[in-house]
Structures are given as structure tokens and as C-alpha cells.
Design goal:
The chain folds into 2 domains: about 1-60; about 65-220, no CATH class. The protein is about 70% helix and about 0% strand. The protein has helices at about 5-20, 25-35, 35-60, 75-95, 120-135, 140-170, 170-180, 185-190, 200-220. The two termini are about 25 Å apart.
Length: about 230
């Protein structure tokens, strides 16, 4: 199979299976058949089963296809990429420490705290930042498909989860939605929440700095190429 087509196939499977298994009819049927806990295991296995070959295929076919854009020598684009990647690491860690109430095992809440005042979906926004940052530096067709998959998963995944949780939880989650924003900073700009010194995710910032240093140092060894490519 042609490299770009193979990347597109596995990226589509990885993203598509997330939406298929979490769609209301399929999820309800599987949960009713095997139970909620077993469903979560199946969901995780399917996600990993698609993610690993997707990464392997891309790793063997980096920069496949025609180059659509080349911003690697643009200082502004490189600076934005560094910012997006640093933000992605912090958001991902902060989201694990203080998860959205829709996440598996997360505590139920009506009002946001910490990172959730910035975005109610820190993990999904982290995927989006990761995808956007890499897209800026990788304008080849295969790369666009691969990293674009993370953007689709991040944006559509967050919207899909919100709609499903409104149906499942009802008023409490609607109240949480009303007090937060998907777009980073939207609730703060709209003054729906107020930021305080105690909301700063210092642990996530510290881990983000350490992780960024490690990724920059070992990126060529682990992933090949420069940290931005």
C-alpha cells in the first residue's frame, strides 16, 4: 500500500474507533452486553490496537507524499510550535491530576477548579496543541494526515463527550458546561470563572518543564529528526 494511504488508513481507524465505540447506540449495546468495566477494557484495547500500528506506520514513512507547506525556517512558526508543545505537556499532566468530571473515575462536580477554569477538556486540548504544533513544522501530506488526526480527536472528541454527558448526567453537567469553556481561556475572558493563585497547576508546570527538557534532549533518539520535526 502507498505510504500516505497506509498512514490515512491507520489514522482513520484510530480516530474512528474512538467515536464509534463511544457513540451512544454502540456504547449502550456493549455496556449492556458485557458491563461497564469490561467495556472500558475493550475500549482501551481497541485504542491501543489501532494506535501502535498507526505510530509504527508513520515512523517508517515520515514526510511521505507531497509537501504542502514548509514553515521550518519561519521564526514565528517555530516559536508558536514550541509554545504549543509546552502547553500540550502541561495541559495533559494537569488534566490527569484534575480531570474533567466526564472522565472515567473522576469526581462529579458542578463548578471548575484549577486547570478546568482554563479549559474543561485539558487532555483533548493537549492533543489538539500537539497536532497543531507538529503540523506547523511538518507540511508533507502523510504528516498532515497523521498529526491532523490528533486535532480531529481533540476537538470532535471533546464536543462528542460533552453531548453524551449532558444526556447521561443532565443538569449537573449542564451547570459545569455553563461555567467552563472548551476554548482555552474562554470562561475567564467571559468572567464565568475567576482565576486565583491556588488554581495554578504548579505540579503540572514542573512536570511539563522536566518532560519538555527530556523530549528535546531525546527526541532524535526516540522519534528521529529534530524536536520540531
Amino acid at each position: 500500500m502507498e505510504p500516505v494511504a497506509e498512514i490515512a488508513l491507520w489514522t482513520s481507524l484510530f480516530v474512528g474507533m474512538h467515536f464509534l465505540l463511544s457513540s451512544e447506540p454502540v456504547r449502550a449495546a456493549l455496556v449492556g452486553l458485557v458491563g461497564a468495566q469490561t467495556f472500558r477494557g475493550i475500549y482501551s484495547l481497541v485504542a491501543i490496537g489501532a494506535f501502535i500500528p498507526m505510530v509504527v506506520v508513520f515512523g517508517h514513512n515520515k514526510h511521505a507524499g507531497v509537501m504542502v507547506w514548509n514553515l521550518r525556517s519561519d521564526p514565528a512558526a517555530r516559536g508558536l510550535t514550541w509554545f504549543l508543545m509546552f502547553a500540550a505537556v502541561i495541559l495533559l499532566v494537569a488534566g490527569l491530576i484534575n480531570p474533567n468530571p466526564a472522565a472515567i473515575g473522576a469526581a462529579s462536580r458542578n463548578r471548575p477548579t484549577g486547570i478546568l477554569k482554563i479549559t474543561r477538556h485539558p487532555s483533548f486540548v493537549a492533543f489538539t496543541c500537539f497536532g497543531l504544533g507538529h503540523l506547523l513544522m511538518n507540511g508533507w501530506a502523510g504528516d498532515i494526515i497523521f498529526f491532523g488526526g490528533f486535532i480531529v480527536l481533540g476537538i470532535v472528541g471533546g464536543i462528542h463527550q460533552d453531548r453524551r454527558k449532558v444526556r447521561e448526567i443532565g443538569a449537573p453537567y449542564r451547570e459545569f458546561l455553563a461555567a467552563t469553556s472548551f476554548f482555552p481561556g474562554g470562561a475567564l475572558i467571559g468572567r464565568r470563572v475567576k482565576w486565583s493563585r491556588g488554581d495554578v497547576p504548579w505540579t503540572a508546570v514542573g512536570v511539563g518543564i522536566a518532560a519538555s527538557i527530556v523530549l528535546v534532549a531525546f527526541h532524535p533518539l526516540i522519534f528521529g529528526g529534530s524536536p520540531l520535526g
